[in-house]
Amino acid sequence: MEQAVIAALLLMGLVIGAGVGASYARAQRGWKDYQTIKTSVPGARRTAWVAIRAVVTKIGVIALLLVGAAAYAAAGSDHERADPATTPTPTVTATPGHRAGR
What we know:
Keywords: Membrane, Transmembrane, Transmembrane helix
Structural class: mainly alpha
């Protein structure tokens, strides 16, 4: 009977120990992964800001081009102002009842 109690206690200790050991191993892996990521964050942050800066620069250039095109279209082209359409000039004709020069 005494051997059965010892065997049961040993089995319970084995099950509890296996659970605690697995949890400890998982915690160690998590801590190691955390430390690895923690050291790589500054580089990743720098890379993200470089990418954001490139995108913002491209958007700014495109916006400036669009604003310039809209301003040019609103003002009209220089060709229309420099060469207005020709209009016929009125000619003076003398009326039959009126003599010119008097």
